[in-house]
Structures are given as C-alpha cells and as structure tokens.
Amino acid sequence: MAGGMKRLAKDTAIYGLSSIIGRFLNWMLVPMYTRVLESTGEYGIVANLYAYTALFVVLLTYGMETGFFRFINTKEEREPMRVYASTFYSVAFTSSLFIGLILLFVNPVSSALGYDTNPEYVGMMGCIVAVDDFCCIPFAYLRYKNRPIRFAGLKLLSIFFNIFLNLFFLIICPKIHISHPEWISWFYKPDYGFGYIFISNVFTTAITFLLHHISSPT
Length: 218
Description:
By secondary structure, the protein is an all-alpha fold. It has helices at 2-27, 29-36, 40-61, 64-72, 80-104, 106-113, 119-144, 148-179, 181-184, 195-211. The chain is built from ten helices and no strands.
C-alpha cells in the first residue's frame, strides 16, 4: 500500500511538473514576441488566434479523454484496447473532419475572423488543433500504462523544439539575413514577421504527429 502511494505521488509529480515547466517555458516566449514584433497589434493577432486554438482543442476532444479513463478503469471492461480504439478513432475522425473543413473553407473562415489577407494563418491553426487533438488519446494511454517519464519526455521535447524554432526564425534568421542573406533567402522572408510563430508551431505539431506512435499501445 505504501509503495503504491509512493509511486502514485511520484508519477503525479512528473505529470504535473512537465505541465508546469511547459507552461513556464511558453510564457518565457512572450517577452521575446513583444520585443521582436514590430507592433503590439501583431502580437494581438498571435494571441487572438491562439485563443481560438485553445477553444477548439477543448471542443474537439468533447470529453473523450475523460471518458477514456472512466471506461478503461472499470472492472467490467475486459478489453482495454477496445476502449482505446473507440476513443482514438472517434477523436481522429472528428479532427480529420475539422481540418478538412477548415482547409476547404479557409478563405471564408479567414474573412469572418478578419484575416482575409493571410488565410494561411487560419489554415495553420487548424492543422495545429487537429494534430493536438489527434495525439491526446495516445498521451492518455501513456498515463493509463503508468509511463510518466515517456509522457513528460514527449511533451517537453515538443516544447523545446517549438522554442528552438521560434528563436531560429525570430532571432537568428534576421541576423543572418543582415550579414549573409544568400544563406537563407531560399526559405526565409524577413517581411513575414510573426507568421513564423505559426510556422514554428506547425513544425512542432508535425514532429509530435510523427512521434505519436511512441505513445501508442505496444
């Protein structure tokens, strides 16, 4: 009993610490954004789109993560993989449907949100939402299997990768463009500005998507 409580406390601390560290590291990007971006209006666009992202991530999981833990831990459930498959494919279907609709109607959606000049922002945010939701059940399965180290490692890896890309596009690339523009002219456009924040997040979610099989049942 004592050993079980000790393990529970340890695992809970790892899950909680990874979330706290992740939020803190992302918060540390805010001073850089406000210093690097040309105006507060630009950062306002970033904050506004991320607010929509947070909202849709919650809506598109529609409680399936909680339902996963509710049913997979019942004594009556003899086939935990059936619960995993049901929740995973349900969320995967709705996430795929969401990104399909966003990409199909990206221009009218962008106009309705006031971003008609940059519809790619809305498209990128849609991809981020879909992938985050797609990966939520595999990460929940890691918690069910009591693998806090792998869970925290994958979470923190994606966060550090996102921070690296933000620093690369917003700090390093502008300096290289001044001294040796020919080195990065094939992919870097200095006037794109805060758009690289979204690009960084898209690359991060792509890496998470590629690594999601690590957190899938084995």
